[in-house]
Amino acid sequence: GQAPHRQEPGKQAKCPIDNNFRETALQVVRSLEPPRPVCPVLSAGNFDGVHLGHQRLIETTVERARALGGSSVLLGFEPHPYAFFRGRSESEHLLCSREQQCELLQTMGVDYLWLLPFNDQVARLSAERFVDELLVAGLGVTHVIVGDNFRFGAGRAGGAELLRKRGAEKGFSTETLLPIMFEGERISSSRIRHCLLEGKVEALTPMLGRPYALRGVVQGGDRRGRVLGFPTANLSLPQQLLPADGIYVTRLRRLGRDSRSGNGAALRSKPEHCASRAVQHEEPWPAVSSVGTRPTFYADGQRIVETHLLKTPNGGIDLYEQAIEIDFLQWLRPQERFEDAQQLQVAMRSDTERARVFHARP
Fold first, then answer.
1. pTM of the predicted model as reported, rounded to 2 decimal places
2. How far apart are the C-alpha atoms of 201 and 195, rounded to whole Å?
3. 65, 41 in Cβ contact below 8 A?
């Protein structure tokens, strides 16, 4: 690859490069070895959920890179440090799959996603060594953009102030962005997780700039919904945080490709390219979804996500083994255990009617 441009201390970065190269797809690099773009402009963080605060950082990074004639680079960690330090699965914590994240970053025009393997070696790196070895000697960074609460390095000792100080010595500049607020509070991944675990999905849309979505492949179930008169598509459990158990107004779309052979599979190699920026998916169908353990039928059931379509194309639709995405729009009620299937049917009729009213709104 090309050798990275390194800005001399005190000099303005100049990056003579043809901007047309940015038509290529997002490149994903999973390695301690950095990508080698010319004149990299970097933002660092986990960007979990790609909420409005992240979007401001990303948009600014892309804008600064284009103004300099350079490349936009997002630096993240895999696995998520939270999961690493607690010895837990990422699926208990993540707000979007890597595939969803890549699709969003690609749409925003990001050139590189550099995923550092987060292990003991990286966790022990001091903030100074993190900057000197990874950002300067490795990437050759020219400009860094971070949020006002960004922390990095062993013990989270580094922040924007250390980046400014180190940048003055090593020849890169640092820019800090203030948070985006919603209803008087900072938009953050932890706030979104809290709302999700309380089932407040309607509060997520204004913070994410889109509905919270689960993505996966439709798998076979016990066909109990069909017997009850409400056939459902059962989603393979995604590698991300599920909303609280309950019934939700949703919408379902078939994806433009099978998730198992799309970005998700492609991301196992390195360096990698995400699919074309113009990812096309079908228009969504109105639906109602259940998240939970089906307590009416199972004393100790496994958590599943079931979705019933309120409207289907003429001739019906077979979703089995299809890749789908479910947008969560509104909480309807908590999960309940009913005395018998008839009581459950009554509740399901009420759920679908309330969902129809929601979807009929202008």
1. 0.85
2. 7
3. yes
